[in-house]
Amino acid sequence: MSPLPPLKALQAFDALGRTGSLALAATDLGVTPGAISQQLRKLEEAVKARLVEHDGRGLRLTPLGATYHAQIRQGFAAFTEAAAVLREADADVIVLSCLTTVLGKWIGRRMRDWTDLAADARISLVGSDTEPDLSQGAADLRIYYGGRHHPPHRTELFVDHIVPVCAPSLIDGHRLTGPDDILRFPLLHIAWDPRFGANPGWAEWGRLIGTRPPPANLTYGLSGSAIDAAIAGQGFVLGQLAFIGPELEAGQLVIPFDLRLPLPDPYYLAWNPDSLRKPGARAFHRWLLGEGRAQGLVSAHRLDSSGCSETMER
């Protein structure tokens, strides 16, 4: 099989065929007329045929060149059409950006509910701890934490709570008579990124029960990693309710004493208004708000000693 001619040579030939002038072809491609001539020579060498000739005023296509150009033009038209199709397809994708753990431990787990409602909507989920510039199209929607970042279009999604949880195997065979018994086990700490402010940790939870906890045995930079460590039986973690629901239902984690602390800030949903014009975007936006409201109710309620639901104070 003969090798394909160089793309730049084909572009120069196509420009000459479209414009009918060496100078106009050079202007069209933003190069010099000499560069166009050089690429035309390379093309003739590659195809081993005479495609252009001098007519006394400049270059023109030979009859064989005109036939070849008609085919080349179809190819470049196909490139243009393919690019348009790609742009159109990309324009329909709704990009949701989230903090890494929010994506992995919360909204990513709920997406099956959304796809059951709107199977045709095209969603791209991006986990990033860097806040995207929604106004520049870096994402269409963003779930973020805390009030230090203020996009112009945003609303509160939910306030989460933390509670001590562990793997059942960690406390198997141990009798826990009160919340302070938790502090006899290894404690896992989550060190938040400073830009999110201070997160409540074991010291704050200790004040809730009127005691001073010992230093944590292990520290993790991501909530998701600390939760996974607790599932593996490495210790107790102050897990966010939004991130541990399936593990609690499956019995991978247990809450010996349901004493919760609210996070100091809510999670927010921000969006680019122009993005809501995408197919399904407004419905997806409403669905996210509904999921946030539902999570806020779950995180703010616990079972009291009688088994009834009881609202926690914020």
UniProtKB/TrEMBL annotation:
Residues covered by the HTH lysR-type domain: 5-62
UniProt cross-references to CDD domains, sorted A to Z: PBP2_GcdR_TrpI_HvrB_AmpR_like (cd08432)
KW Transcription regulation (keyword) present: yes
Key words of the record: DNA-binding, Transcription, Transcription regulation
Highest taxon of source: Bacteria
Gene Ontology molecular function, alphabetical: DNA-binding transcription factor activity; sequence-specific DNA binding
PROSITE patterns attached to this UniProt entry: HTH_LYSR
InterPro entries: LysR-type_TF_proteobact-type, LysR_HTH_N, LysR_subst-bd, WH-like_DNA-bd_sf, WH_DNA-bd_sf
GO BP terms: DNA-templated transcription
A Pfam family that the UniProt record links to this protein: HTH_1
Family: Belongs to the LysR transcriptional regulatory family.
Name of the protein: HTH lysR-type domain-containing protein
Organism: Methylobacterium aquaticum
